[in-house]
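Table S2 (continued). Query chain:
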Amino acid sequence: MLKRNVTKILALVLSLLAVTSVSAFAATYNFYFTPPFVGSIRHSSPATADGAFTPYVQPSGTTNATTYVLTMPEPNSIVTVSNTRTNITSGIAHFTYNSGYGGAGQRYKLTGYPSNTNFLEYRAAGNWKP
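Corresponding output:
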């Protein structure tokens, strides 16, 4: 009887971990963009890829159209490691890694900039996963 209850509890815990795994490993970003367009690139803190090849960005709420790409973790690096996602305002946008990137333990940054060159200041924040 006790063994059966332990097995049920373990199955429940594993199910909950599977359901919450996307948000549990997500990093956050908070970009504040001010004109002019030149110099408006923002970078998140680096985060570590889990090797599952499911990178994404997910703004919280709705924001101005923003372009996102994953880049190398060095300060101010613009070496891209994924496809570029343009005009993201809400929802979830998935990235595809460029060849040779995305393995478990590799570190990347989320890099973003306004999709429109003529923009008013705004904030874009949310979750992302390398």
